[in-house]
Specification:
This protein is mainly alpha-helical. The protein is built from 2 helices and no strands.
Length: about 50
């Protein structure tokens, strides 16, 4: 493998890894929204079931 191909491969791996780490951190540190449970709205109100 020549030098330019190796540089391109390593830089591509670095960019992809940085994007993946950034978005995983963004997802894992996001605040949870205080939303009501949507399944409660779909329950049968007559108690049959």
């Amino acid at each position: 493998m020549n030098t330019s191909a190796l540089i391109l491969m390593i830089s591509t791996w670095t960019i992809v890894t940085c994007f993946a780490v950034y978005f995983f951190i963004k997802i894992l540190t996001a605040k949870k929204l205080d939303e009501p449970d949507s399944y409660l709205d779909n329950d049968d109100q007559t108690g049959n079931g």
